[in-house]
Amino acid sequence: MTIIDGKIISAQVKQELKVEVEKQKANGGKIPHLAAILIGDNGASETYVASKIRSCEEIGFRSTLIRRDSSTTEDEVLEIIQQLNNDEDIDGFIVQLPLPAHINVDKIIEAIEPRKDVDGFHPINIGRMAKGLPAYISATPFGVLELIKRYKIETAGKHCVVVGRSQIVGLPMSILMQRNTYPGNCTVSLVHSKTKNLAEITKQADILVAALGKPEFITADMVKEGAVVIDVGLTRVVDTTKKSGFALKGDVKFDEVAPKCSYITPVPGGVGLMTVAALMYNTLLSARREIYQ
User: Fold this and answer.
1) Nearest to 164 by CA among 156, 172, 153
2) Are the beta carbons of 212 and 164 closer than 8 angstroms?
């Protein structure tokens, strides 16, 4: 059993990006500039955005953080987005999710200029990805692909089961794994909370991607011997033994599932770190106009 180390791979990706930015700077090119919009005071969102800003500093990107309180209206957020869309110095930007309940998430995402949508959430980028056209791939699925690639895990002809159908992870992951590329060329099953006999299907998986958002949902009896298990889940659960008062759990019951696997990602230390690295990669592509001319 091999543990897929997201810490090592994300550090490799960031180092490669740093070298590219230094070359660009030496040649008089533009330094990539990423902006983040943070609405409200969600603790997890604060942590994620801080990590993204820190990664920008490590790689040599410029970054801008736009903070507003939870009373900010939808129209005010749309106005900020329009300003960033029109700012030629900003190569890409993200709106950190979740947003306060009074703001329509779809409306916000659709307002983002697709060429600056480095999160890969805009319907145009999702549609282009589905057709195999150049597009910004959602950061988490992109990170999963990079882990598979760098560990040289075989995918062609394998049965990949994706658990969870979110537009951010499950849906794009299922599309990417069936494409005629590497990683890809899998036979893909997309299952979710309403799937009957879910465990019977997950047990057929050569590659199992768990992205349901339910801590320790995937147990040993749902996984076949030798499977590759990619755990995208990350949930805070109460743990009084920890100083923080909580522990981070994935969708997979790691201790009992790991002995059955050929490869498995841990939580934390797996896919989550790759998500930030993938966002940085998309920002570099945007600065170079490699997706949209």
Assistant:
1) 172
2) yes
> Which pTM value belongs to this model?
0.93
- Indicate if 205 and 244 belong to the same structural domain: yes
Residues 156 and 241 in one domain: yes
Q: Which residue shows structure tokens 């990350």?
A: 234
User: Count H helices, E strands: the chain?
Assistant: 10, 11
pLDDT digits (tens, 9 = 90+) for 71-106: 999 999 999 999 999 999 999 999 999 999 999 999
Q: State the Cα–Cα distance between residues 139 and 145, nearest whole angstrom.
A: 10
219 and 102, same domain (yes or no): no
Half-sphere exposure of 286 (CA within 13 A, CB side): 30
Pairing state between β 246-249 and 235-238: antiparallel
Q: Which active-site residues does the annotation give?
A: 52, 96, 119
Angle at 19 between CA 33 and CA 232, to 5 degrees: 70
Per-residue pLDDT reduced to its tens digit, 193-248: 899 999 999 999 999 999 999 999 999 999 999 999 999 998 878 777 888 788 88
105: containing domain: 29-114
Q: Of all helices (H) and strands (E), which one includes residue 192?
A: none
For residue 19, the number of C-alpha atoms closer than 13 Å in the C-beta half-sphere is 6
Domain at 213, CATH number? 3.40.50.720
Q: What is the dihedral of CA 6, 9, 164, 124, to 10 degrees?
A: 140
